[in-house]
Amino acid sequence: MPLFGKGSGNWLTSAAGRRLLPEGWLSGPMPWVIAIMMFLMALTTAAGLALGFTAEGLRADIASQISIQVVDANKGRRDADAGRIVAAVRRLPGIASVRRIDDREMAELLQPWLGAGFADSDLPVPALIDATFAPGAETRLPAVAATVRAITPRARIDAHAQWLAPLARLIGSLRWLAGVLVLLMAAAAAFTVVLAARAALDTHRTTIEVMHHLGSTDGQIAQLFQRRIATDALFGSLLGLLLASLVILALGDRIGKVGSDLLGSVELPATGWIILGLLPIAGTLLAMVAARASIRLALRQRL
Amino acid sequence: MRQGTATIVDFENVGLRYGGGGGETLSDITLSLATGAFYFLTGPSGAGKSSLLRLVYLAQRPSRGLIRIFGEDIVTLPRERMPAFRRRIGTVFQDFRLIPHLSIYENIALPLRINGVAETDIDTPVREMLEWVGLSGRAYAKPATLSGGEQQRVAIARAVIGRPEVLVADEPTGNVDPDMASRLLHLFEALNKLGTTILMATHDLHLVPRIANAQIIRLDKGRVADPTGALRHPPRPDGPAPVYGGRA
């Protein structure tokens, strides 16, 4: 039977059908409980999605990169080794780009720790080379390491994916946690609907008994309540999403003003907003299914 | 009254025991209702009249025995098929059971809507029913504003608008004055003449002679009073109604 069926059931969705249950919509606590649940669900979903997109971004930007440091107090030898390493690595298959960080860039990088005047000092600073693998070629890291070590044992290779791994695992755990929380909140919302449906059945016991004796099917009776519950659930869901959206926008604004690169990368792209926009539809469908199932189950207790 | 030889309701050794212990409310009920006949179901309070009616209008399954309605065994009838059977049985409850927040019109229209009749085909039969029960002027009144007799007429109109094959009425004259009882009985008789089998529970034996060829089923302590069944004779029009029980 369709959710808002035709045939013998379609009058139930007409004005005549609606008059069978006299009280207006939003008459109970259910829409407000669903609004609260949807508010929390939308925030949690947004957090999970933002973390997910951030993790993807980090992986794409950083996981394919390696840094090669040539640590040698002898500047001439260091520069020579660095030049040979750049040339050798560039020739390797699977390498998208190789470049040595020049002295001016190194000075800018180290200035916060060593001060403005260090560029003019004799302080030995490692030569730094950035290399990027072509997509899917990250497995070639051992070949790069072997090539570099063949040139000089004083070189050190840092695969960015290695230090990124704990952060990626943390983000992965937080995403799972967000998913579990969303499921728990959806289950709580569904149970709220079940309780509301059962209370409605109790309130309208006389009407249901009369309809039952006159030959109503379980589907017809369920449909009566389902429409009302769907309307309430849709209202609650939209209200919850609206409030959550305001909070997400406000938080995004605050994060932007912090000025941190890492925090700044946490953002909700358009795809995330589309997914959030689907939550009220999913919530309403869930409410309808929960209401229908619980009402039909309750009616099965009768002959 | 049209009365065929076919039976429309058959009970065979039916027993009914409600949950919660105690003995049987109905025991060894064996009876048959002929298609198109008019039956009074009589007996003292607590004899089991309402319980027997509940079995006929499918509000209850028996604890034992066999019940056939419209030729089908309703004891084992799947629950999903019950609504279709209920639509063929009209029921008039002693307490009317009108839906209080619906108008008289909508109460009467309810069986048609449940049965899937198009909205455009509802108004005419409902108006006819309102006229038949003499309530044309109260179509949009709420049940609470009607007298007991008027509410009972609405209940009758609602029970018969779907042209049921069997009409079950539980003490329909119990809450009305004698004049109204006569009017209600007249409605039942008119319906019976259209071919509907009527089973009417009543305390009031004075009603019995008013229906020509009506038959009586008498219950006592949950049993048909004359189980041997020779059985049901029409009441004498010129004397007090004889009381019988048993098989048709």
The gist of it:
The complex is a heterodimer of chains A (303) and B (248). Chain A is an alpha+beta fold.
Describe this structure in words.
The complex is a heterodimer of chains A (303) and B (248). Chain A has a 4-stranded antiparallel beta sheet with strand order 2-3-1-4. Chain A contains 10 helices and 4 strands. Chain A folds into 2 domains: 15-59 and 165-302, no CATH class; 72-153, no CATH class. The longest helix of chain A is centred in the middle third of the chain and has 44 residues, at 160-203. Chain A is 68% helix and 8% strand. Chain A has helices spanning 15-18, 30-62, 75-91, 103-114, 141-151, 160-203, 205-213, 218-258, 261-264, 270-299; strands at 65-70, 95-100, 127-133, 155-159. Chain A is elongated, with a radius of gyration of 31 Å. With 303 residues, chain A is α+β, with helices and mostly antiparallel strands. The two termini of chain A are 20 Å apart. With 248 residues, chain B is α/β, with parallel strands linked by helices. Chain B has 6 helices and 10 strands, in the order βββαββαβαααβαβββ. In chain B, the strands form 2 sheets. A 6-stranded mixed beta sheet of chain B has the order 6-7-8-3-9-10, with helices on both faces. Chain B has a 4-stranded antiparallel beta sheet with strand order 2-1-4-5, with helices on one face. In chain B, a hairpin with a 2-residue loop joins strand 4 (64-69) and strand 5. In chain B, helix 3 (104-114) packs parallel to helix 5 and helix 5 packs parallel to helix 6 (178-193). Chain B is globular, with a radius of gyration of 18 Å. Chains A and B meet through helix 7 of A and helix 2 and helix 3 of B.
